[in-house]
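Hello Y.,

Per our agreement to keep a running log of every chain we model this quarter, I'm adding this entry. I've kept the format consistent with earlier entries: sequence first, then predicted structure.
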Amino acid sequence: MLETKSKKSPLLWVPTTYFTMALTYMTLTSVTAIMFKNMGMDNGRAAEYASYLILAYTIKPLFASFVEMYRTKKAFVILTEIAIFFGFLAVALAMALPNYMVLLMGLFWVISFLGATQDIAADGVYVTSLDSKAQSLYCGVQSLSWNLGPIIASGGLVYLSGKLHAEYFHHDPAIFGADWVDAWRVIFFIVAAITVLMALWHWRVMPDGARAENTPTNFSAAINILKDSFVSFFQKKDVWLMIAFAFLFRLSIGFLEKIGPFFMVDPIAKGGLGLSNELLGIIYGTYGLLAVLLGSLLGGWFVARRGLQPTLFLLCCAVNIPNVTFLLMSIYQPESLLVVTAGVAIEKFFFGFGSVGFMIYLMQQLAPGKYTTTHYAFGTGLMGLCMMFTGVISGHLQQMLGYKSYFVFVMLATIPSFIVCWLAPFHQKESGTTE
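Predicted structure for the entry above:
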């Protein structure tokens, strides 16, 4: 039963809930890559280690049913946020120990599963506490709040790490190595503090969330639901083409995601642009994220007017072709910050514009059926699997090829995306469009 009228306004808990979810995810999967790079790891290991932390978010549909079985959804949100607080606190403390990297990866791995569980429970609160009208009303707030996470994490935290390193701890920002530990310890203390404050806030204002009608009551029932959802998924017509679409649509973006920031901070002598963490934070976390948001809004408007089927290939072009900006920057290594910012903003804007098509295709074509929510999660999980696979190997490939040749490879990696978009099946009738 939905709580259509909560005593607390959704504006008190929806923004903070989705911001906290995004902060955890971005800290684990993007910020750690920059941290590893700062601390002296080569591109191969830095991208690989950060990419492994995507796994828990990729497989969360496998344990979502079990989260539903116990206590309230609010309780899981609060418990996971408190556990994440202790996790990041432990990370900051562990970095003061000798040979801390193995312990650090273990802690990050645990936090990633906590973060995935937090996502499941928080989405459950949103879906079961608000009726369909309220869900639509607060959808924009939800999306905007989530996107504040990347701005704070990839922008603010990375910027602050550079400021602390150079101006507070008085280390040379151009030298990567153990001196960066001091600044990054402070960053993880900050993330821990934000998370526990959010947990306390949500304890006061978040509704409990209702139980869904098909919530399993025991372990056996949860297993049966999971099995049935898999069987019904693979019974869909042309399911393998839809799986290929979900996995390959963002293939080139996966190869670019970790290496783009590395390219920005690597010295000019190594083929990079030699930017500081502060500049990286401003360019990626501010202008880049604003470009993504603007592109997403315009992309959604474009699809609403024209329909998805006639525009999908164009949206694929928008996602993939602007990657050439990184190839051009690797060739010319521009010194102008305006040129570099424009290059990143162009790529991010068109990525946001085109990626709308990916999400709408999953919702309208792959997900519909008996287990719509679960099958949508399967689709996003396949996308996450692509991001993990490409991230794990991207740094090693870049080291083998160098930046120029690697960005040529990124452009070649766009070809599978064009093929799957051209072949993508449309079996569900699209909702009405306007001309």
